[in-house]
UniProtKB/TrEMBL annotation:
EC main group: transferase
A cellular-component GO term for this protein: cytosol
Annotated keywords: ATP-binding, Carbohydrate metabolism, Galactose metabolism, Kinase, Magnesium, Metal-binding, Nucleotide-binding, Transferase
Pfam assignment, any one: GHMP_kinases_C
GHMP kinase C-terminal domain sequence ranges: 113-194
Protein name, UniProt field: Galactokinase
EC number(s) recorded for this UniProt protein: 2.7.1.6
GO molecular function, one term: ATP binding
One of the protein's GO biological processes: galactose metabolic process
InterPro entries (UniProt xref): GHMP_kinase_C_dom, GHMP_kinase_C_sf
PANTHER family listed in its UniProt record: GALACTOKINASE-RELATED (PTHR10457:SF7), MEVALONATE KINASE/GALACTOKINASE (PTHR10457)
């Protein structure tokens, strides 16, 4: 997904990508008086690769269990209601949690597309928050550094939402922040992070721009 976004990016456009088919379309992403702030935990992601493979395997096992009764090729084909109706097919709570994250995250992605098209940044921010909660509770790929950073961000005035990005267990998170409150946001979140984690985070104001191109 990273390489796709880098190669196919367009200014002020999000990309809705189906990773099963590589079909995609652009979605207007105009944040007006808000901007994306990238927040780096500065924690090395030592577990990211092994845990990524573990989560992938768990999702595959959940899918295989569901396929015994359902004609599906991916977890993303299910709605949350359909998963709930068929959760008895999944043999244990861990696999159910992984499937629940995959299914709910797919629905949140479609809801986020709708929110961006309607320029409903409040709903978009709420979806960011819900995504992080699911990544923390059901997918379990966050950790104290990311959770501290995101919780501190979500508590600040002028913030519509925040969530981790990437493989987890360190790395970065993002927040959607009112431009006029960016300086205060960075100062407050960094103070909280240093107090609770013991070292500083880094912050980078970002914008959606065109992808790579020949100069």
């Amino acid at each position: 997904m990273d390489q796709f976004a880098i190669g196919m990016g367009k200014k002020n456009q999000a990309i809705l990508l189906d990773t099963n088919t590589l079909e995609y379309n652009y979605v207007p992403a105009y944040f007006s008086d808000h901007q994306v702030i990238i927040m780096n935990t500065n924690k090395r992601r030592e577990l990211a690769d092994s845990k990524y493979n573990e989560r992938r395997t768990e999702c595959e096992k959940a899918l295989q269990a569901l396929q015994k009764s359902l004609p599906i090729h991916s977890l993303g084909e299910l709605t949350e209601e359909q998963l709930k109706e068929n959760q008895n097919l999944i043999p244990n709570d861990i696999l159910l949690k992984r499937a629940r994250h995959a299914v709910s995250e797919n629905e949140r992605t479609l809801q986020a597309e709708k929110a961006l098209k309607e320029n409903d940044l409040v709903t978009f921010g709420q979806l960011l928050n819900a995504s992080h909660a699911s990544l923390r509770k059901d997918y379990e790929v966050t950790g104290p550094e990311l959770d501290t950073l995101v919780a501190a961000a979500q508590s600040q005035p002028g913030v519509l939402g925040a969530r981790m990005t990437g493989a987890g267990f360190g790395g970065c998170a993002i927040a959607l922040v009112n431009r006029d409150q960016t300086e205060t946001f960075i100062e407050n979140v960094d103070d909280t992070y240093k107090e609770q984690i013991g070292y500083a985070a880094d912050f980078y104001p970002a914008a959606i721009d065109d992808g790579t191109r020949k100069l």
